[in-house]
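# nightly structure sweep
# worker-07 picked up a monomer target from the shared queue
# config: single-sequence mode, recycle default, output format = structure tokens
# input follows
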Amino acid sequence: MTRGRHFVVLLALLRPTSGGAQERPRAGAARADSVIQVGADREVKIDAAKLATVEPYLAADPRDSNHLLVGVSLVAKLGDPRRPDFAQDVTCAALASFDAGQSWLRHDFPTKKCGDPWVTILPNGRAVFLALGRELLAYRSLDGGRTWSDSAVSFGRGHDHGTLAVDQTGGRFGGSVYVASHQSTNDDAGKVRDAVFIARSSDGGATFTEPTRIIPSYLPTFPDNPVTLADGSLIVPFANFTRRTADKERLDLLWSIISTDGGSTFSPPRYVADCAGGWGELAVDASPGPLRDRLYWVCWDRSNRHVYLYSSADRGETWSDPVVVNRSSGPVQTAAIAVNRDEVVGISWYDARNDHREYRGTFRCQEVFFAASLDGGRTFRPDVKVSTAENCPDTPANGEAGRRFVAGGDYHGLAAAADGRFHLVWADSREGIYQLRTAVVRVAAKETDAR
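# output follows
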């Protein structure tokens, strides 16, 4: 693809003030309370028993509560990891369900060395799959994931962490599909710069506009997932990763930018937080209620002790102080967020609170927890445990996948279905190798006045 628009925003980077797993007793938080009801923890059966199945991303059809879509990486071991010629065969697949997650259809894509799978469902029920191979590639499905196109749209090389968003409104850009990713580019002097890459499709992912590339600073810059507001405005968050200071601390700054013209031009960056310990996630309240268009950013700190939520009631101009979501002291990883039709904010994450075997280090066994806010992110109900067995990544069957994906990937799946239920999909190695599991969480909403 040819280079598109390219502009630079001068940014003053000042910190604002302001062995296989075994079943174990359900220690810690309960699996249910009077408000949060956790359904059965079930295997996602896709005939991948010999593959480490990691990094699932989940999308829910906003108009059909039975329609779910997952993007996932499938890792096969090749040879002995102690040998210098060791390699892994990593492919990607899309999993579609039309019965609310009871059964799944699997489609494998031809891209090898595939990673960072991402999916979305359009207002007309069609679907787009995005993943990173040697290039960033987008495939589309005209029937919601039952079948997929053989050819892909390529966005070229130099990408990382590609994500998708869809304008679900009926406005000027309604139905548009947005791709956001990090891309390394060269300036006129040949020096590498990090750009926020944005491209838009108005035909369901068949073609895309010339991309907009934003270079907000000379620091390493990585965008996260975009969202759209009720008027079609596009919000894109991104992190600036700073160098370590003399005391070995890092100040990673998170910003957001907004476009009101379909991703052609963007505002100057607005500061969100200095919480960028891993890939966070942005969500928006798309309900018709009083909290419509409220933005939520979830992240976890570099100490892996806290899951934080930040919120904005003014389209990202200003953001709240952080609210601590988890009730434990961690370690925590890979937090995900979704907002349902009743304005309930749901957050899930991997949590090692019940494994006190410190010698395992980064390979401590984890479980999946969920918490909900019924007042626009001000407070959270006590968190509940979703998974019914510990997940230990450091196993012979997982091999290098267990070392690379210590929490099942850089993210897991959480989405709010059209009926208000929260669906979770996560990588779980209770049987010794990462396999997908799923559960449904119901939250009894109540009237809120968080404006």
